[in-house]
Amino acid sequence: MKKADVIEFYARLAEADPHPETELEFVNPYTLVVAVALSAQATDVCVNKATRALFREVDTPEKMVALGLEDLKRHIKTIGLYNTKAKNVIALSQMLIDDYGGEVPNDRAALERLPGVGRKTANVVLNVAFGAETFAVDTHIFRVGNRTGLARGKTPLAVELKLDKATPQPFRLHAHHWLILHGRYVCKARTPECWRCIVSDLCAYKPKTPAPKGRSLASPSPEPDIDPATGEA
Ligand code: SF4
Q: Phi and psi dihedrals of 73, rounded to 5?
């Protein structure tokens, strides 16, 4: 995509949603780490349903360790892979207490040391909790980057590095939220809704999806979050 088109692309998404936010619910950086770790291969809606009650009681690593593994499993048993995720959350909470004074570190390498925290989770935490200009490539961004021509790549890391290079100011801070929301609600995996897409003329994807007969132009239902590496929901 040409530089002028990239600017126009982001400008339109920004105008439509000037203050995009993560749809995951959290109350502080620690609960953000937990929520993002729980959201792997699960929808934000599903995670929020489970964490709403949990975070009312438990909002620090110390409280999580005191809650214990079995009680944590009880809270999150509606989330896929909850056994492994619960073990990771208890282990990462213990590491935060032991190595970081109970605080979430503002540092990529330190975040990626935490059990269950990979590059994508670290990027979300750095961006949302600490205001870093990072690009957390999930299944939606991976798809939108490749379809549009904004950032093509065979792996999430390749797409992330291209987005980092291609995305200018003043769009860098919110870019990944705009792209996630665009992929979740408009540029859906099975059928991209090109007929109502505000960046259709800038996007390289062909052929564009025509408006289905008898269907409303507004279609707010979100796409499920599916991991690009595994294809699982
Ligand atoms: S035109 Fe279609 S493929 Fe391109 S970004 Fe919009 S919805 Fe996605």
A: -60, -40
Ligand 1 binding residues, C-beta < 6 A: 147-148, 186-187, 192-194, 197, 199-200, 203, 205, 208
Burial of 221 (0-12, 13-18, 19+ CB in 10 A): exposed
Q: What is the pLDDT of residues 42-68, one digit of tens each?
A: 889 999 999 999 999 999 999 999 999
Written as six digits, the tokens of 180 are 């996630």
DSSP 98-157: HHHTTSPPS-HHHHHHSTT--HHHHHHHHHHHH--------HHHHHHHHHHSSS--SSHH
Q: What confidence category does residue 229 fall into, taking pLDDT thresholds of 50, 70 and 90?
A: very low
